[in-house]
Structures are given as structure tokens and as C-alpha cells.
Amino acid sequence: MKLPSEVPVMVLPNATLFPQALLPLYIFEPRYRQMLLESLHSNRLLSVAMQKPGRTRETPSPIAGLGLIRVSVGHKDGTSHLILQGLARVQLAETVRYKPYRIQRIRPLESPPCNDVVVDALLAKVRELLEERVTLGIPLPFLELPKSQPVDAPPAFSPKDIFEYLDKLNDPEQITDWVSSQVLRGPVEQQTILETVHLEARLKHLIHFLMAEITRQRKDKKR
């Protein structure tokens, strides 16, 4: 799919859109209602950027997710519920316009070549940590299995289902981003993963975050 050179940008607190992941959104602001309407009549693409922490003015993080509107349900009051499917990491460049909603130029980001042996070892560690989470009683809050279930009614999955699905995936980037989007609860952690383009570094961040969560859980059990 050929990506456009500029797209509408939604700047939201604590929201991260990963490639391949599904992000449900509730649209109620007038400017974003207009953005949605015009996007639906265009290429259905828009970008979601996290608001930079500590900024009072609207300031998007420089790395964002580009998504395709898969589902949009409008309501009588003019609001809408929609589901975005992430397509790519993008770097936000110059702003084309600010009103009625922000439009910025984008540059797609691709992971540079990496060592397959190292990546396989890191992925094995991620799986080991996910299994340890289950052993400690930390639920796997996976919301959906991408491309395998209807997006409007995702069922619950057992840990066995999740691990069997992960074993069938052969794209290390997809595995890393999907696990990050579903397991990591902290917005800062998710944004860190999104902004890390190099796959090996991304996996190391993910492992660090999973180990920190497991350490906290162990300490809580001892109290």
C-alpha cells in the first residue's frame, strides 16, 4: 500500500498506535469529527500521536502510528466509535496546517537490518517472560488476535491460545509490536517501544519492561 506524503494527525494523551495493532477510539471533539468525516471520504488514513508529557500546548510526539480506519460507527449526537488498524511507524515532519485539524507530512520508518540469531534469542526470552507472567498470575490482557477474529466482538483467549498464535507468527517485528501493544499497560513504555526503530533495541526494551513488571509482582506476593 502506497502511503501518502501527508496525513491528518490526532494528538491524544496516553494513546499509542502500533503497526498491526487495533486501536478503538471515541470521536467527540468537533475538529476530530470533521477529520473523521473527510478521512472516510478520502483514503481512510490518519495518524495517532501521543501528546508530549508536561506540555500544556498541543505538542505531538515526533514518532507516531499511521492507521487505516477499519470500522466507524456514527451516533445520533454526532460522535463516533471507530477502530484503527496500525499500518506503520512514521516520523512527523513539518505541519501543513493546524486548523480545523492538524495535517503533517510524514516519513515512514523501517527497521534497519539486524542479526537474526540475536533477534531469535531475544524473542525466546520474551516468550519465557510471558510464560513467567502467567505462572505468577499476571493475566495476559490480549484484546484480539489480529486478522483472525472479527474486530467488533473479540472473544477472550486462554494463555494456550495466545502462545499457539505467537508460535505461528514468523515476522519478528509483528510479534514484538503486537506483544508490546497488548501487554504493556504504561503509555510511556508503549511510546518508548514505538519510537525504537531498531528491532534488537526494541526487543531489549520490551524484555526490560516485562522483567520490571515480574519483579514488582514478586515483591507484592512477599508482602
Describe this structure in words.
- There is one protein chain.
- The protein has 2 domains: 104 residues, LON domain-like (Archaeosine Trna-guanine Transglycosylase, Chain: A, domain 4), CATH 2.30.130.40; 107 residues, no CATH class.
- The N and C termini lie far apart (52 Å).
- Strands 1-3-4-5-6 form a 5-stranded mixed barrel.
- Helix 2 runs parallel beside helix 6, helix 4 runs parallel beside helix 6 and helix 5 packs antiparallel against helix 6.
- With 223 residues, it is α+β, with helices and mostly antiparallel strands.
- It contains 6 helices and 6 strands.
Structural class: alpha+beta
Radius of gyration: 18 Å
Count of domain modules: 2
Write down the secondary-structure element order.
EEHEEEEHHHHH
Instruction: Outline the low-pLDDT stretches.
Output: 143-155
What is the terminal-to-terminal distance?
52 Å
Number of helices: 6
Largest sheet: spatial strand order: 1-3-4-5-6
Count the E strands. 6
Approximate strand percentage: 25-35%
User: Percent range for helical residues?
Assistant: 25-40%
The mean pLDDT is: 89
Largest β sheet strand count, sense and barrel closure: 5 strands, mixed, barrel
Shape: globular
